[in-house]
Specification:
Layout (H helix, E strand, L loop, with lengths): L3 E6 L2 H9 L7 H11 L3 E2 L5 E3 L8 E7 L2 E8 L6 E4 L4 H4 L2 H19 L6 E5 H17 L4 E3 L4 E8 L15 E4 L3 H15 L8 H13 L3 E6 L2 E9 L5 E9 L8 H14 L21 E6 L2 H9 L16 E11 L1
Parallel strand pairs: 6-7, 13-14
Antiparallel strand pairs: 1-4, 2-3, 4-5, 5-6, 7-15, 8-15, 9-14, 9-15, 10-11, 11-12, 12-13
Helix pairs in contact: 1-2, 4-5, 6-7
Length: 342
């Protein structure tokens, strides 16, 4: 008999509290996304609505435990979003093939019970677990008379993180670059084209109005920083998916005419130092008491391009490395895959 058990949560607050005990960068995507979806409506002067909470009835919240250890969380925030799969750091490394099969055998019928036999379409998370879940769903569907085709990945990346211990010392060669928090509406409007270009390389096609509103929310939350060169806006960095212990770098973008000048690295180093509480920060006018979301233990990110990995490695991210503090793997392969109903 399997030692694993499936638990279904009805309340997002209860689910978040259960996951927070396992809060690390490997859990940031599902946990941070859930917490983002639970945030109240944000408004600016004049009362314009920027962001609304997700309809609670659309959330599906599943978790697999072994005793009191969280093994896997699987959630869907709404039917407009992919399912998100996560596992605390180090857990996946300890799962045998038999363990994975047992976990999937619980998740698949759990999905069907919560969302219906056609309620599963796409999922993002650790590559091996995503592949096992896709295979398990295809087999389950076939057993129930439904033809389903597994699709190739839409998008793959590496997820990694930096800590205070992994950060390098300040880089004098980058000290001339001016980095500041985004506070002006005209700068936010100028960033729309930057973010649109950035998102064209990701798994989902951007919408200009959605991007404009995302930037408004991010600016309101103090989640965006910009770099100027000779007074010209040259690049930006944004964060999100804030959890008690982690924060994610979501976008790093440099205008084509300003690339290969160290701007992406300077932005990454400065924001990482800010959130990890390491002086000097390197951001003009950085708050003396740290970021609005509080100092974190880990700053994480996804990287999809090999050439860009070098920038983040130089900035202290543990890509293709072990965490020297724990001896556990400091990164994992992430995959965004789906299925097609035939």
């Amino acid at each position: 008999m399997s030692n694993f058990r499936l638990r279904t949560f009805s309340e997002p607050e209860q689910y978040a509290q259960a996951c927070i005990g396992f809060d690390d960068s490997f859990m940031n995507f599902p946990l941070g996304s859930l917490l983002d979806s639970m945030s109240p409506i944000n408004t600016v002067d004049g009362g314009d609505q920027l962001q609304t909470t997700v309809e609670q009835s659309l959330r599906i919240l599943l978790a697999v435990y072994k005793a009191e250890q969280l093994i896997v969380c699987l959630l869907r925030i709404s039917d407009e979003f992919a399912w998100m799969l996560g596992t605390p750091r180090g857990v996946e490394e300890e799962l045998s093939a038999k363990d994975v099969a047992a976990v999937i055998s619980l998740l698949v019928p759990g999905i069907a019970a919560a969302a219906g036999t056609k309620g599963f379409d796409k999922v993002i998370g650790p590559r091996a677990l995503v592949n096992s879940l896709i295979d398990g769903w295809v087999s389950y569907a076939a057993e129930h008379g439904q033809a389903v085709k597994a699709l190739d990945p839409f998008f793959t990346s590496k997820v990694s993180y930096a800590t205070r211990a992994s950060l390098p010392p300040p880089c004098p060669a980058l000290s001339h670059l001016k980095i500041e928090q985004l506070t002006k509406q005209e700068d936010a409007e100028a960033l729309v084209s930057f973010m649109l270009d950035f998102l064209t390389h990701g798994p989902q096609k951007p919408n200009e109005e959605q991007v404009r509103r995302q930037l408004q929310v991010a600016m309101y939350l103090s989640h965006v920083w910009i770099c100027r060169v000779d007074g010209e806006l040259a690049g930006y960095i944004s964060v999100g998916r804030v959890t008690p212990r982690t924060v994610a770098i979501r976008n790093v973008y440099v205008a084509p005419s300003h690339r290969r000048k160290g701007i992406a690295e300077a932005l990454t180093r400065a924001v990482s130092r800010l959130y990890l509480g390491v002086e000097p920060v390197g951001i003009e006018g950085a708050p003396l008491d740290g970021p609005a979301d509080g100092v974190k233990d880990e700053v994480c990110l996804n990287v999809a391009e090999k050439d860009v990995e070098r920038i983040y490695t130089r900035s202290g991210f543990l890509i293709d490395q072990q965490d020297p503090a724990t001896g556990k793997q400091g990164w994992f392969h992430s995959s965004f895959r789906g299925i097609e109903y035939l």
